[in-house]
Design brief:
Helices cover 15% and strands 28% of the residues. It has 258 residues and is an alpha+beta fold. Strands 2-1-11-10-14-13-12-16 form an eight-stranded mixed sheet.
């Protein structure tokens, strides 16, 4: 296994990890997609959360300038730091009501009318704002996986570099054949002390057209994937079937197909 990441706020910066704990009950343990920035027109009841399509939130598919922000969230203290493209720094504490209001004000100013009213920083106990949360409660807790060999193969066919973080995965694998991961659906996978079930291929949307370093929409990668491979998929989702920890450098073992 090559790299690990979590994404505290939907649509904002990844944070790199050396190890992660996973459980069947919670998926990744820690603040992965813990928060989202709901559009002003979105209704979200934190006491009775319902999975919503990502179109109800600020997101890279529509709001590419989010990628130009560099964000760091401290899950222990609640401190959020945002660095704007001009180097200006914003800080607030998401555990404090005033801090949440300040974050909403920041994004209302940064994105303007794209927020469709005043944005709302939302969270709910036990809820994750994953793209596949609308599929099932179990998929809400699924972890996303990218095979770096597939990204390199796509680069070769596309004719230009493709930054792996465009795909916003939790787990980046290396040492596999290109696109091997797509054959794992329905099979069990062991990483470190954790067990997973590969359950779904990841259909890609225009979010991957956004450069994660510049915030520019500078490719047409979903079209390129389909044109070169005859499908829209890059990456897979794992459900956690056995609690444990995973660490960079762990071996990845996929069981033989039944």
């Amino acid at each position: 296994m090559s790299e690990l990441f979590h994404y505290p706020i939907k649509g904002l910066s990844p944070q790199q990890d050396t190890f992660l704990a996973v459980t069947a009950e919670n998926g990744l343990v820690g603040p992965d997609r813990r928060f989202a920035l709901a559009l002003g027109t979105t209704e979200f009841d934190a006491d009775h959360p319902e999975p919503l399509d990502k179109g109800y939130f600020l997101m890279l598919r529509r709001n590419e300038s989010l990628a130009a922000l560099k964000t760091v969230f401290d899950g222990d203290t609640g401190a959020l730091t945002i660095v704007k493209p001009d180097g200006a720094t914003f800080a607030a504490n998401l555990e404090e009501p005033a801090g949440r209001v300040a974050v909403e004000d920041f994004f209302a100013d940064y994105l303007g009318d794209a927020c469709k009213g005043r944005p709302k920083l939302v969270e709910a106990a036990g809820h994750k704002f994953t793209d596949v949360s609308v599929v099932s409660p179990a998929m809400m807790r699924a972890v996303s996986v990218i095979n770096l060999a597939s990204v390199r193969d796509l680069e070769a066919r596309f004719g230009r570099p493709v930054h792996p973080l465009r795909f916003r995965a939790n787990i980046y694998l290396d040492g596999l054949a290109p696109w091997e991961e797509l054959t794992w659906v329905g099979r069990d996978v062991t990483i470190g002390s954790a067990r997973f079930r590969c359950v779904l291929r990841t259909k890609r949307c225009a979010a991957i057209d956004v450069d994660p370093e510049t915030g520019l929409r500078d490719t047409a990668l979903p079209k390129a994937i389909f044109a070169n491979y005859g499908h829209p998929d890059c990456g897979v989702y794992f459900e956690v079937s056995g609690d444990g920890t995973i660490e960079v450098g762990d071996d990845v073992i996929c069981d033989e197909a039944a």
